[in-house]
Design goal:
161 residues, Glutaredoxin, alpha/beta
Amino acid sequence: MIIFAINLDVKKEDKKIDQLKSPLINKNIPKNPIRLFQKNEIVELKNVYNELYAINFFASWCLPCKIEAPAIKLLSEKIPVFGVAFKDEEKNILDFLKTFGNPYDKIGIDRNGLLGIEWGVYGIPETFIINKKGQIIYKYTGPLEIDELEKNIYDLIKNER
């Protein structure tokens, strides 16, 4: 019983460590353009959205990305979510979207991981909330959980509108 309680405290501490504040918070989003998935089009995010939105770095080979799929779907019902397929292949992305659904308003491709580096991505999945001014106001590292949506993100969305 004591070991179980200690284990829970360790998991809580691990979660705190995972969610250290990003140095990009309150900074403008990176300016480099993003190639859209299955389109011969390159976009700059500052020209895509004039509203609050999220960016979710994911991959078909990422188990935590599969786990977070229901939470990303719920988030997409509140604000647009721009997906970034991280170091992935087109066929695998299509299979992932077919299996877990497509909550993304648009999907960009980061084949070599350079976009992730610009965004300060340590590992995937990672989710960012971007305000109307194009500033990163929130970053979540790891699989987004419905509990996190309800405790933090929904209030943030409400306060930013």
